[in-house]
From TrEMBL:
V-ATPase is a heteromultimeric enzyme made up of two complexes: the ATP-hydrolytic V1 complex and the proton translocation V0 complex. The gene is vma7. The keyword Amino-acid biosynthesis does not apply. Belongs to the V-ATPase F subunit family. This is V-type proton ATPase subunit F. GO terms for molecular function: proton-transporting ATPase activity, rotational mechanism. InterPro entries: ATPase_V1-cplx_f_g_su, ATPase_V1-cplx_fsu_euk, ATPase_V1_fsu_sf.
Length: 119
């Protein structure tokens, strides 16, 4: 059993494009903690892959995050890292964006489920 209870996890983190982040911030997911760390990363064409990977690592290691949402087209940039992630918390969900539709064949969680059920 993990040393930190799932009950302590009460935030949603997001790695996404500007439109996705803006919509989710307007919905109220934004948070900045005492160390001035945000629970979101806006990714644009200039964002380095290393920046995306470090944000992914930070969000998956934080004990206050329950769900990590990531635009699927951004997850593709760090696919090996995303595919290696297998923890229950924070739950990882790949979401579509305005310009990039969801492709179930690329979703790492869906691939694992299909493998589990032998599909």
């Amino acid at each position: 059993m993990a040393s930190t209870s799932f009950k302590d996890r009460n935030l949603i983190a997001v790695i996404g494009d500007e439109d996705s982040i803006t919509g989710l911030l307007l919905a109220g997911i934004g948070h900045i903690n005492e160390q001035q760390k945000k629970n979101f990363l806006v990714v644009d064409a200039k964002t380095q892959v290393s920046t995306i990977e470090s944000a992914f690592q930070e969000f998956t290691e934080r004990k206050d995050i329950a769900i990590l949402l990531i635009n699927q087209h951004i997850a593709e940039k760090i696919r090996p890292t995303v595919d290696l992630y297998q923890q229950a918390f924070p739950a990882l969900l790949e979401i579509p964006s305005k310009d990039h539709p969801y492709d179930p064949s690329k979703d790492s969680v869906l691939k694992r489920v299909q493998k589990l059920f032998g599909d």
